[in-house]
Description:
36% helix; binds the ligand O=C(O)c1cccc(C(=O)CC[C@H]2O[C@@H](n3cnc4c(=O)[nH]cnc43)[C@H](O)[C@@H]2O)c1; alpha/beta; 5-stranded mixed β-barrel; 28% strand; Rossmann fold; two-stranded antiparallel sheet
Amino acid sequence: xxxGPNILIMTxxxxxxxxVCRGLQNNPRFHVTEAGVGPxxxxxxxxxxxxxxxxxxxxxxxxxxxxPGRAAVxxxxxxxAIVAADLGAETPDGFSSLDTLGFGSSTIEASGQASAxxxxxxxAGLAAALAPILTLSTVTGTAATAQALSERFPRAAAEAMEGxxxxxxxxxxxxxxxxxxxxxxxxxxxxxxxWRIGEALQALEAAGPTLLEVLV
Length: 216
Ligand SMILES: O=C(O)c1cccc(C(=O)CC[C@H]2O[C@@H](n3cnc4c(=O)[nH]cnc43)[C@H](O)[C@@H]2O)c1
């Protein structure tokens, strides 16, 4: 194959993988693999994929919840930072992150390509924000938790369950990482009837041509 980047894309489940592959027109530079759901499974599967191939960039792609007023259903969010929002300790004075506890960092900075990608997605006519994306092991299901997260992370636009796992694996191999999410639901009180998974999968697919243009 010609010189060019080899890019590993981790998607939680098959429906997301199929949408991403359609958007990328099965371009051979992109290797799309299932990460499973949740940060632990995603970290393990990303590590396995990275031991089996040689990659220049890792991307976590899938659907996500959007903070109301920051990322609408059907829009895209490109992470400038990938944040483990529930990694730390609860205290009577509030949440203490890993950083505060002195055990490491809860934030992994995204590749410098994140900004150019968000700009190019917007130029392609897609609604796209550049903002931190939170990783949580538990999907937020109450207004109180949504409010608390929104206050702890005033710039965050989305939450999902795999980004920090994928990013931790990529970081341990010294490979830059991106997270790109399409919003399927608003973060807040659980309401499965309001999830718009089809709309989010369409947005993931629509991002493909811009990824080809900017990253290859
Ligand atoms: O029925 C539920 O309440 C429920 C509980 C846990 C998981 C789900 C899923 O449908 C899978 C979550 C899957 O999609 C991503 N995702 C999408 N929206 C959100 C969200 O608001 N918060 C966190 N994750 C979300 C996530 O990355 C998983 O891969 C349903």
